[in-house]
Structure formats: C-alpha cells, structure tokens
Amino acid sequence: MPFYTYLKPRKSDTPERKIWKKRIAGKLVDLRSALNDHIYGDGRQNVCAHDRNDAQWLRIATWNIREFDTKKYGGRLKESLYYIAEIISHFDLIALQEVREDLGALNAVIGILGKHEWSYIATDVTEGRPGNRERMVFVYNNNKVRFTNIAGEITLAEKEKITSSHHNGLQDPSGLSLELPPETGLGLPQKIKTRKSGDKVRLSENLFIDLPERTKMILPAGSRLLLKKGMEVVRDDNGVRVLPDDSSVPFFCEKAVLLFPDDLIKGNALQFARTPFLVTFQSGWLKFILCTVHIYYGSGSEGLERRNQEIRKLTKFLAKRAKNENDSDAENFFFVLGDFNIIGKNHSTWESLHSNGFCIPSELREIPEGSNVRRDKAYDQMAYWERSAGRQRGGVCIDVGNAGIFDFFKYVFRAGGDDPDKEDERYYAGEVGKTRLTYPTWRTYQMSDHLPMWLELRVDFSDDYLGGIAER
Description:
By secondary structure, this protein is α+β, with helices and mostly antiparallel strands. It has two domains: 5-162 and 270-412 and 447-470, 4-Layer Sandwich (Deoxyribonuclease I, Chain A), CATH 3.60.10; 221-266, no CATH class. The protein has ten helices and 20 strands. The strands form six sheets. It has a six-stranded mixed sheet with strand order 3-4-2-1-20-19, covered by helices on one side. It has a six-stranded mixed sheet with strand order 5-14-15-16-18-17, with helices on one face. The chain has a two-stranded antiparallel ribbon with strand order 6-9. Helix 1 (15-40) packs parallel to helix 2 (78-89) and helix 2 (78-89) packs across helix 3.
C-alpha cells in the first residue's frame, strides 16, 4: 500500500496547494477503485475481493513506462509518480521497460510504495543508438516475492547472433571500389522509388542490383591476407610458397582469410538492441525464471526482419535453457515478458513469439484489445515455456488465474473521449504549452504510451500436495 503522507493538508499549505492535494487525492481514489474493479470484477472468476484468498495467487505485470524519466519534455509531474506508484502497488512483481539512466524517478516511486516493502533489480544501461540507454527493471513486493540470487543479461553465441539484410556487405570508407567489365553497366531497373531532398534526388528504399560477371574488387590500402596455422604449403629451394603459383591463392577458404582495414565491414552480426534481463524468483511454492525484453522496433522490411530475428533467437536461447533447467528441476518455470513490438495476433511477429515451445496463456490471448494506448497493437506480451506434457493441473504447475490490460487514461490525464468537458486537458494546458507536444502525446510522457498487462499465477499448492499424500 503506497504512502500518501505528503498529500496530507498542513497549516503551512497555501490555498492553491490544498486544492492541488485535494484534487490528487480524488484522482487516486478513482484510480484505486478502478484498479480493484478491473482486477476483481468485470465478470472474472473471482468477483469479490473479500471472497478471494490473494495469498494463493501471485500477480505479475509488464509495463513499458515510456522514457522513465526523460527531461526533454519537462519530466514527470509529482502527481504522475503517485499514479504510477498506485498502479504498481496492485501487482506483486512488475517488469518495467524504458527505464532511463537516471533512476531518480524510479527511486521516488519506490519511496511512495515503501522502501521496506518494495525492492527493484535493474540492469546497466544498454549502449548504442538502438539501446537508447535504457534499463530493464523488475520491481517486486518483498512480502510476496523472494529474489533467489540469480540475475544476468543474455548475450548470443557468435553463430547465433542477429544479422541484418546486408550482413555480408562491405561499405567503403577509404579505397574499396568495384571495377565493372568493359561495356557493362549496373543495369538499374526502370521503376525506382525516390524522394526529393533539396536539389538532389535520393532513393527512398533499398535497392539490390546483380553485379555483372567478371566484376573485380579493388582493395583499399591496409588489406591483408591471413593464412591460418595448419594450411598446406610448398617448401622447396625457393623457400615457402602457398601454391606453385602464388597468384592463385584461394582467398576465401577455411585456411585463408582476407582481412580488411578496421571499420570497413558494416552490418555484421549483432546482439540484441536492448539486452534481455533474466532473474530468478520464488513466491510460495512456485519457483520461476523471468526474462524481460524490449525487442528492436526499427522500420520497413529490414526493421521487421530484425524484430522477428530477435524474438526467434531469444525464444530459441530460452527454450534451450528452460529444457536444461527442467531436466535438473522440473518445478522451475520459465517466462518471457515485456515489449515485443508485436504488430498483431495474425502477424509474423506473433508467430515468432510462439516458436521454440513458448505459449501465451489463453487468458491473455482472448483479450481482444491491444496493449498500446490506441488498443490496436499487441506489442506487450507474456509467455511461458510449455513442456512436452502440456499444461497440467496437480502438483506445482503453471495455473493461470485472472489476466487483463488496465487502461489508466480513463481515470487520469483523461482525453476528450473520456471527459466530455475536457476538464483534464484544460487543467494541464499550461504544462503542455511548455512543450511542442499535443495533449494526447504529452500525457504519454506523464504516464506511458503502453498499458500494463498482467496475469495471476497460483503459488499455493498445499491442497494438491496434501491430497496426494492422503490418497496413498
């Protein structure tokens, strides 16, 4: 339960401060009521909170909490941190994506939640432009969840790395060139998509061209030939030669490698744009391993291909790890959750997540709306590795209770559709005016452009265990 002592009216408060505190308290009351209705009501299997034994269930969530916290649009308001803390408090463990380098806002939220009751585990920032200097974070309630001492970031083996569509390409910074056979050209197609840029015409999409036969490559200065240890050579009175005719050296073979100057090769094998974070936890009887991700987004066909590759490579890696874990401890379960940038349930990105034995629980699959603010994309997901025996009940197993996606914008930072008089939009007009954003976009930097997705897992298997003994 969050601590709201800061909102208590004080004699020293100005009239404006008292009005502000009263307004925020009212918003929090509405938000708390909505969260309780969302989790326990709405026709779910456990309708009444007082009839439900929450000790039997662990509530896990994932939330891409947009650029938490960036200062480029003024940063989050104090009240936003209260709303975020209130939402987090209704879950026992939540995976956060897009937490930025500065942890000040996250620490403020933990302070509202209560530092003695809540903890978090965070990665270092991911370097590079695709990584956006983001962290992966797990926030959890110490009264319900125990960190079981293993945490790590996932890196792929060399042969499993991600490749771009031009992974075998060379881009010349200094001296590499192609020499076409005489009287030949590149054979450009008739129809090419272009765009005007100032007084220049530029390609608006990648263009692949088949090179003519007998095209030669002129190497830049600094190129070298590496002959590997163990390569067969000729030794005679003239010394050591690779072959009788040195001009026919097999440049590209197992024992000979053509080396280019540094920074010549572009688009080589890649790791994940944002390093996945794997942590072990236990709650009640349930031991589980969570891997949180923020999959590469990109754009166009190349961005989509890399997105699919990241999902497939990740599930392949985790499936192998899960199988090994299952062989040694059959009651340790593997989950992957986060922002997969999945376009839709009939898209290749959805199929990629279901590869290598991973399954999204039906309780989440059956939710018709998406997890983005517009509710039209299936970006965020939660999946578990399914054993060959399937999902069975009895003993410690994956037993899913309620699940949902919570739309907080119906209660805070409301838009015109939810607030006919546009009260909130008028109230925040001064803050929005300090930026170049529209109100609908500005509010996503106060809360997020993603909605929290959650599900419940049973963690009390006492009846199953005792029943098994009693029946013997």
